[in-house]
Amino acid sequence: MNQITAADLACPCCHVQIANPRLLAAINQLQNTCGSKLEINSGYRCHAHNASVGGAPTSQHLLGMAADIHSPAHTPLDLYLFAEQIPDFARGGIGLYPQNLIHLDVRTYRARWYRPMTSGWKHHPGQPRRWNRTQRTCTPPCARARKTRLQSLRRAHAT
Ligand SMILES: [Zn+2]
Ligand SMILES: [Zn+2]
Fold first, then answer.
1. CA of 145 to the centre of ligand 1 (A)
2. Which of 45, 66, 78, 157 could be stapled to 105 by a disulfide with Cβ–Cβ 3.0 to 4.6 Å?
3. pLDDT tier at 143 (50, 70, 90 boundaries)?
4. What's the pLDDT score for residue 134?
5. How confident is the model at residue 150 (pLDDT cuts 50, 70, 90)?
6. pLDDT-derived band of residue 96, with 50, 70 and 90 as boundaries?
7. At 12, phi and psi to the nearest 5?
8. What separation in Å is there between the alpha carbon of 20 and the centre of ligand 1?
9. Domain extents for the chain?
């Protein structure tokens, strides 16, 4: 499996490559842990590109500290569970988005957010369950559901 490099995380408009080494290391660790190729939706963003995609003005993408990813082999929630096993992501930011992707960053404090689930997540035992209309977020799966799901993922990976 190919390593993910700064080139994979380059800004699509200006092709500038800025990637924090901890982000690169953590994302490659994640790829090895889940055993399937990760596809990058968004990595580094210059200010112009960040504005054009509606990114937050203080987005970690502007610092080369963040990547939005998906994998054909795993649901975003499964990737979320794997990412929680990588120390730099566990201590940093992980967000779930309805476009079937997951945001990861290596900021130095913990941040989590969950946007509306997509229909594809419906049958997962660890799915976010309650939809908070005010905060526009879902509750994360309970600890027990996460543990069960992670165990079954590990079993699948081992075979
Ligand atoms: Zn750019
Ligand atoms: Zn992001």
1. 40
2. 66
3. low
4. 55
5. confident
6. confident
7. -70, -20
8. 17
9. 6-158
How many angstroms separate the alpha carbon of residue 17 from the centre of ligand 1?
A: 9
Q: CATH number of the domain at 6-158, please?
A: 3.30.1380.10
**Nearest listed ligand to the Cα of residue 23:** 2
Place of tokens 């035992």: 125
Instruction: Point out the ligand nearest to the CA of residue 16.
Output: 1
Q: Rounded to whole angstroms, how far apart are CA atoms 38 and 26? A: 12
Take residue 118 and report the two structure tokens written for it.
């997509």
The pLDDT, as a whole number, for residue 125 is 44
Look up residue 66 and give its amino acid. Answer: A
Nearest ligand to the C-alpha atom of residue 64: 2
Q: Among 120, 104, 126, which Cα is nearest to 41's?
A: 104
Rounded Cα distance, 155 and 119, in Å: 25
Q: Which ligand neighbours the alpha carbon of 55 most closely?
A: 2
- Residue 120 φ/ψ, nearest 5 degrees: -65, -15
Q: Distance, CA 57 to ligand 2 centroid (Å)? A: 12
